[in-house]
Amino acid sequence: MNTNTAHLDLAEFDDLVGRGEIDTVICAAPDPYGRLVGKRLTVQAFRSLGLNGEGINASSFVFAVDLEMN
Questions:
Q1: Quick one: pLDDT at residue 69?
Q2: CB–CB of 41/27 below 8 Å?
Q3: What total number of domains does the chain contain?
Q4: 13/44 Cα distance (integer angstroms)
Q5: Is 66 part of any domain?
């Protein structure tokens, strides 16, 4: 088992999902102001897009504008 609680390997992730402890995955990154922006995905969507698919898309708009949307 991974002793670093900040990271999960795939086996640990599968175990937690199987026990019902994870039902949503948050895929996020900080914008230039430090706010997390991203998506909430069901486990099924995360597996389909993130692990087995073409990846998870994010809008570049939130990284290109300031707080006043300029």
A1: 66
A2: yes
A3: 1
A4: 13
A5: no
